[in-house]
Amino acid sequence: MKSHHIFVIAAALVIWAAVTGATAQQQINSGQMATSLAGVSNTQLSLTGAQMRQAVLDNIHNYPGALPPRPLAFPQLENLAQFVVEVDFDFNSAVIRPSSYRTIGAIADALHNPILLGYGFLVIGHTDSVGGREYNVGLSQRRAEAIRDALIDPFNVNPAALEAVGMGEEQLRDPAHPTSGVNRRVQLVNVGKKFCFGRSGEQFVCP
Amino acid sequence: MAERREGGANVNKVTSLVCALWLVLVAVLPVNAQTMSYADAISQLAAACRNDIAKYCKGVPLGPRLKTCFDTNGARMSPQCQQSRGVVYASISRRAAAQRNIGDICSADIARLCGTSHADAHLVECLLGVSPAAMSPQCNQTFTDTGWRTERARQ
């Protein structure tokens, strides 16, 4: 009953984030992030980051064009607990702007919430359509890694709990306006319980 | 005129007093207060050091290299940035250390309050359920510093 309730909140948050766009997303606080990440549990994702990266390159190879003729879908991810935020980077660079430091700190606070202890997360970067598709895959990969790196140091998130994946422009949020800022975003996805706890509280990969 | 000058002197006195009180608070608070959330800590740094980051650390990624940039150029940065940088990085490392050391510092409390079998599986959940008054002061302070109580309450 309770988990169902939480899932509804998470779904509502995702929809709300999708509708209201970039400005409002900055206001999602760490508690709301933690709530949307905690919506679904006991799900084990079989999809790996390497498989996702390969699928992105395959999509470009199999469906060439200036814009992706068809969006890349990962049905396995769609029902997992997640949220989307906008992070500002320097132009054509993986350097996070100080205006987004707070967002990264809030993501770290959410990932440190005790309800998310022991879970693993995907950090997925998306670009708009400016620039070549393959270039954008590389750029979004470096940006996702920059976020992962900042979450690890200075914000002390367990490195083994995070995997960074660059999606480029293969999943435009607003395909009708491919250069719009709403397409530039970061998606955090809870991929399920990853760590168990030992006798003195130490973490290890669940058997 | 004289009255106005006197009024100005009073305002100055009040300002000095407020400044002195504020300095005392800043000096005393970090000892017993809780650590800042990472969001509050890093946005305080971004606000206090916006110009200094643009001037001395442009293009430096948020992470260990930004801290190195602060350490290298700190003396040339504005006083409010220097002050904020000290407070912010101290809070961040104190929170990290608390999370790292909670198992050791609270081991006696965990054995006494949670019973070993409970604590083995979920140390944090157990401590969240314990009243702060029942915990030893050192364990309670460390648990507060982890930020787990405040983050759990925010959710």
Query: What would the average pLDDT of chain A be, to the nearest integer?
Result: 86
Report the helical percentage of chain B: over 70%
Intertermini distance of chain A: 28 Å
Regions of chain B with pLDDT < 50 over 5+ consecutive residues? 1-9, 21-30
Strand content of chain B: under 5%
Describe the sheet with the most strands of chain B.
none
State the distance separating the first and last CA atoms of chain B. Answer: 57 Å
Shape of chain B: elongated
- Tell me about the largest β-sheet of chain A: 4 strands, mixed
- Going across the major beta sheet of chain A, what is the strand order? 1-4-2-3
How many E strands of chain B? Answer: 0
Shape of chain A: globular
Order of helices and strands of chain A: HHHHHEHEHEEEE
Structural class of chain B: mainly alpha
Rg calc of chain B: 21 Å
Structural class of chain A: alpha+beta
Average the pLDDT over all residues of chain B and give the rounded result.
Answer: 82
